[in-house]
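Collaboration report, partner site 2.

Our partner group contributed sequences for two proteins of shared interest, and the home lab folded both. The records are reproduced in the order in which they were received, starting with the first partner submission.
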Amino acid sequence: MRMQEDAVLGCKLSKSLSFSQDEELYISTSDTKIKMTEDYAPFVDKILNDISYIPRSILDLGCGPGYIARRFSEVLPDAMVFGVDKSSIMINHANNVINKSLKKNNYISCSEYETEGGSFGMFEKEPDYLHYYEPRLQYMIADSAKLPFCNLKFDLIILKGTYKCLENKVDSLKEMYRVLSHGGEIFIYEFRKDIPEEEFALLTKHMKPQKVKSLRRKLNCSLDIEEYENYLSEAGLTKFSLIERDGLDLKITIKKLHL
């Protein structure tokens, strides 16, 4: 059986663990108050400080246990936030977290949910399993190459450490661009494979050795800039995109211009 690529660890799953065991291990070590305070909250805050608008609808693609989407929902209570992942384990965990924080009467039927302009009209076809949900934060299982959303629905789309692991990278880019609103942006964050050793040592000098080793593995398993450029070109998005080096990260920004 072919080893599955893991967006969490950056390379291949451990031979001693099944895919589900690996996901459970990641959830137990990542979805903590310390990680939210030190990693996820600053990441979301940085994004919101870097953009010049307040997004009304956000898609966290490859959301994992749901921490980034959860943070967006906390700081933007008027925004509609969706977390999407192919893993049922990740989505079940994310939903369990928000379910525990809500009483049953806070739930609302999908068919009843409306905004000032009428029905939200988010889905091309409403998923059968999505019977009840928290109105402003939702998690669902979906394929990035075939998103179940209508055109032009998201002002902001985020991918953190997941793009390199998508099975169909070109079609996924096309789908993201399709559901992106006019004036909206896609932010893809991955680790920099081309970072000079001197710069890597400087940026990690205050980190624990185990953390540095983990980061080095993730960097080595990332894609080259040329590979990202090729995927953007195949998707027809080169003229709408910008690739930037940002510390340990490589940031790809894709914008959809206003008509």
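Second partner submission, folded after the first:
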Amino acid sequence: MWTFAVAVIPAVVLIVYIMIRDKYEREPIGKILLAFFVGMLAIPLDLLLISIFNLDYLPYMFDSEVAVQIATAFFSAAIPEEFSKFVILFLLIWRSKNFNERMDGIVYAVCVSMGFATVENVLYVFEDPSCAWGRALFAVPGHFLFAVLMGFFLSLAKFSVKHKFRNWTMTLLAPILAHGIYDAILMVSDVASEGWASLLTIVFYVFIFLLWRIGLKRISQHVDSSPFRHWRSIKDNQLNDDDIADDQKIDNMKDFFDR
């Protein structure tokens, strides 16, 4: 029972965290749950992509063991997993009325990713319970951070009129690079000498630290850009101003949304 709890709780905690950060116009609980459970479908889609394109075999085109591990990190993990999550996310929210501010992209990307990560985590933990805490502390939060990058750029692609091509490209490229580098460091350290493995462990912790800094900064950027933040301030000022007639207050609020 404890293994199941350790496998599932990290994803739940991170979903609650991102819901709390989305403080100006929170998403419906039903939509959050839908994104989480639909995100689980990224697992079979990921396996299908690996099977169709023989992605597990591509790394063995390289002679070097280090190159094989790096290629495996990208071809067998980062590329198919992030692409699968992107497909689910896009189909779920792109035309949804709930996707009405930039922070929403991050919220739903995290929920989809946590659905994927939960299934993956349960499979790993039940196969090898000794990896439970390591995956709880690093693997699931890793998927969270990859999702933040995906959601950040997907929102820019939808709501920003500038740099459309760049934002669409980064919607996939940023999480793939982050995920690939994350896995590559771990995989190469498994085949490296003891000295190199120790160095790569330090590199891994530095990378995780930087990834958290970037992820939290991206979340704050989209929270601060919320139009509902300004709406709340205007609404409070309007409702508390006794010098403005009620009809005028309503007209002012309508004008805000018409702009």
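Feedback sent to the partner group on the second submission included the following. The first helix runs from residue 2 to 21. Residues 114 and 239 are 39 Å apart (CA to CA).
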